[in-house]
Amino acid sequence: MLGEGILKGLAVTARNFFGSYVSKQRLTTLQYPEERSPQIEAARSFPFLVFDGTDAEQGLRCVSCHICEKECPPKCILIKKSTDKKPDAVGKMQFYPAVFDIDISVCMSCQICVEVCPFDAIKMDVVYDLSTHDRFGGLLLDKQQLAKSNEYYRQIHPTEAATVDAARAVERAKVAAKAKAAAEAAAARAVAAAAASTAGGETK
Amino acid sequence: MSTTTYPTITLSPKPDESEVQLLEVSMGPQHPSTHGVFRMDVTMEGESVVKLKPVFGYLHRNHEKIAEQETYLGSMPYTDRLDYLCSLTNNWGYALAVEKLAGIAVPERAEYLRVIVGEMTRLQNHALLVGFLMQDMGSSGTPLMYAFREREKLLDLFEALTGARMMCNYMRFGGCRVDLPAGWLDQAKKVIAGFPKFLDEYEALLAGNEILMARTQGVGVLSKELAVSAGITGPMLRASGVNYDIRKVDKYSIYDRFSFRVPLGDHGDVYDRYMIRLLEMRETVKILQQAMEQIPEGPIMDPKTKVRNFRPKAGEAYGRIESPKGELGFYLVSDGSPVPYRYRVRPPSLVNLTVLEEMCLGHNVADVVVILGSVDIVLGEVDR
Amino acid sequence: MNLETIKAEIEANVPGCRLQLVTNASPCAQHSLLLDAEHAVSVATYLRDAAGLRFDFCSNVTGIDWPQREVSEKVKVKKLVDGVETEVDEVKKTIVPGYLEAVYHLFSMELKHGPVTLRMCTQDRETQVHLPSLMYVWRSADLQEREIWDLYGIIFDGHHDLRRLLMWEGFVDHPMRRDYVDPDDFEYEPTAHDDVLRRAQLHAAETGGQ
Predict the structure, then answer these.
(1) CB contacts, 8 Å: A2 with chain B
(2) Residue C93 is assigned to a structural domain of this protein
(3) Does one domain contain both C14 and C61?
C-alpha cells in the first residue's frame, strides 16, 4: 500500500515520543544549568598550576623550565623566570616563574603542556563555564588565577593525582634516603676524625 | 591497452540566452544545509540546474603552513581540527604517515586501541551523516536527534578515554597517549551491543519511506568510470560499485585480523550512498566486537620514540587511511629538522567535490542540497 | 612494485621520454620518478592504460617549494703556500637555483597496487613556472592543480579553469612559498614571544602604539 513506509516511520516516532514519558533512555534532555551531565574524570578544559600545601607562592611546583612554553602549539603560554631561587618539595633551590600567563582564548586544550612537564606542575582543569565581559584581558589568566592546590587536583582527577602523588613520594623518599646516607657517612667520618685526633693527642 | 574510454569534461553547455532567462543564485556561504561555510554559484533555468561552480576557501586556516613551523607533535592537535567530526581518524592518518617516515613500530595493544577508537569514530560519523541527510530533506530534526542520541554515548566514551569529546589528540608516533581507564571496555561493549538495535529502529524509520525513496533514488548518479578518474574514495566510490576500501587494500594496522565485508552499491545515486553508510555501520559494529574481544595486554607506546626533539631523518613518506569520508592521506617531507619541510593533507572531501557539478546538472535546486549532503563534506577538511 | 622495472617499461614504450629515479632515504622506500615536462602527458597516459600497471587513481597532487640555497663543500685545491705547491682544504660555495615541484601519487584501483610517485620540476621560481596539466589523464588533478597554482604559483598549461581555489579572487601572492611574508595585522598579542613579539612591537611602533 502506498504510504506504508511513512506509517512505519510514524510508528517509530510515536514509540519514541510516548516512550520518553516512561523510560530515561528515550528522554535524554538535561535541564542545564539546574541539572548537569555527570563529570567525567578524564575531561580537560584549560591548564592550571599545581601548588603543594596552602601557600600558592611557596608551594608552586613550577620551576620555570620553559618546556611547556616551547612545546605549546599555539604559543599561548608566557613565562618569565625569576632572578632568585626558592626551595622546592625536596628542598633543592629552584627558580620559579615571576610571570606565568596563559591566554585561554588561544589555548586549544590539547594537553601537550601537561604531557611534557617534567615536574607535574601544570595539569588540566575541568571547569568549562568560564565567561567574561572583557574580550581581550579577561581571558588572559595570570599566575594567581592559575594556581590551584594539590587538594583541588585530587578532587577533580582522583586516579591521576594518586599516581602523581605516589611518584613524588617515591622521589622524596629516594632523596631523603640519599641525604640520610650522606649524613651518616659524614657523621662516621667526623667520629673517625675525632677518634684519630684524640688518639694522636694521647700519643703526643 | 584497454579500450575503456575516459569521460571528457562535461562543461555545462551554454544555453541559448535569447530564449530562456537564467537565474544565478549563490547558495551559501551561510546556509543551513551546506555543511559548513561552503558556497555554490548555481545557474538555473527555472528550477533545474544548468551550471554549478563551487567556491572554496571560507574556512582556510593555512594548516599546512602552520605545520611547517610547529614540531611534528605540535601538529597533532591541529589535525583534530581538519575533519572536526572525526578527530581520531585524522590523528591516526598523521601518526601513520610519521611512522612510515621515521620507521617506527607500534605495539600490538596500541594497534587494537587505534582500531577500536577509529571504528567508533566511523560509527559516530556515519550516524551523524544519515541524521543530517534526513535533516536536509526536511525532517525538521527528529531523525537527527535519534542519531545524535547514539552518538552522544560514543562521545562520552571518547571523553572518558582521551579527555575531550571531539578534539581528542589521542594518537602519538609509536602508539597511543593513554591507556584504557578502569571499566571503559565494559561500558564500550554495552554501547556497541546496543547499536544494532538503534540501526534497526533507524531503518524501520526511514529505509522504506516513500518520500525518501522518491527524493534520493536516481538523483545525483555517479558513474563508475568518472568516480575512478576523479579520485573519489570512500563510501561515495563504493556506492558507484567500485570495490576499493583502503582497509582491505593496504591492510594497514591490524585490519587483516578482522573479518568484515565491504558493501557496494549498484546505481551510484544518493539512495545507494545513504544505504552504504547504514550497512557500513553494521560492519563496523562487527569489527568492534572482534577487536574488543581480542585486545591483548601490553605497552601502548614504542619506547624508543622521543616526545620532545623528535627528528626523523631526511626523506619523504605518503601515508593514508580509510577515514569515514574517504582516503585521508598525509604527505610529509622531512629535512632532518624537528619541523617538517612540507606537510600536505590529501583531503577526501575536497577531491570528492570534483564531480559535484556533473552530479547536479539537470536536477532541481532542492536536489542539490541532497546531493551535497550525500557527498559528506566537512569544510575543515576541504579548506584546511 | 619495483620502480626500476616500471621506469624501464615506460622508457621502452614512450619514445623520447627522459625519466630519472629519485631515491627516498626514509624507511618506507617510496621512491619517485622525475618526469620531463615535454613527455609528462604521454608517460601519465601510458601509466594509466598499460595492462600490467593500470594506475587509474591519482590520489594526491601537491606542490613543494625549493628556494635558492647555498651549498658549501670542502674541496682540495692546489695552491701556492710560501712558494710550495700544496693541497689546501677550501670551502667551495655553489648556489643551487630554486625551483617549484609538483608531486603526484598514483594508485591502481583495478589491480590494487601502488603507490607510484611522479615528480615534475619547474625551471625557476619566477617566470619559467609552466608545467603540463595532467587533469585530462586523471580528473582528480582538476581541483588539486588549481590549489597548487593558488598556493605555489605553478601554471598548469592545458588546465580548463585555472583559478584560485582557497584564496579569494584578486589575491596577489602565493602563500605557501617559503619566502611569503604574512601581513602584519596584530590586533592583540597577549603572550607574544620570540619572533612574534618582535613583529608585534614593530607593528605597534608603526601604527602609533595601538
Answers:
(1) 210
(2) no
(3) yes
| Count of structural domains within chain C | 2
> Looking at the structure, do residues C168 and C207 belong to the same domain, yes or no?
no
Q: Is residue C29 domain-shared with residue C42, that is, in the same domain?
A: yes
Mutate to test the interface with C, among B1, B3, B6 (most CBs of C within 10 A): B6
C193 — contact with chain A (CB < 8 Å)?
A: yes
User: What's the grid cell of residue C198?
Assistant: 618582535
Residue of chain C whose alpha carbon sits nearest to that of A76: C191
**CA atoms within 13 Å, Cβ hemisphere of B364:** 6
Residue C13: which residues within 8 A CB-CB, separation 6 or more? C46, C50
Over the stretch B116-169, which tens digit does the pLDDT of each residue have? Answer: 999 999 999 999 999 998 888 888 888 898 899 899 999 999 999 999 999 999
C191: nearest CB among A75, A136, A137: A75
Q: Quote the ipTM score.
A: 0.88
Tell me which chain C residues have a C-beta less than 8 angstroms from the C-beta of A137: 190
Residue-number span of the structural domain to which C111 is assigned? 3-66+99-176
Band of the pLDDT at C141, cuts 50, 70, 90?
A: very high
**Same domain assignment for residues C104 and C171:** yes
- Strand order from edge to edge, sheet including C20-22: C20-22, C32-35, C116-121, C99-107, C57-66
Residue B142 touches chain A, beta carbons under 8 Å: yes
Q: Are residues C128 and C62 in the same domain?
A: yes
Residue C72, in any domain of the structure: no
Q: What DSSP designation does C15 have?
A: T
Mark whether C27 and C111 lie in a shared domain: yes
Does one domain contain both C115 and C155?
A: yes
Q: pTM of the predicted model, to two decimals? A: 0.91
CA C109 to CA B228: how far, in whole Å?
7
Q: Are residues C171 and C195 in the same domain?
A: no
CATH number of the structural domain spanning residue C11: 3.30.460.80
Asked if A71 is an interface residue toward chain C (Cβ–Cβ < 8 A), one would say no
Q: Does B336 contact C at CB distance below 8 Å?
A: no
CB A109 within 8 A of CB A44: yes
CA distance A28 to chain B (A): 7
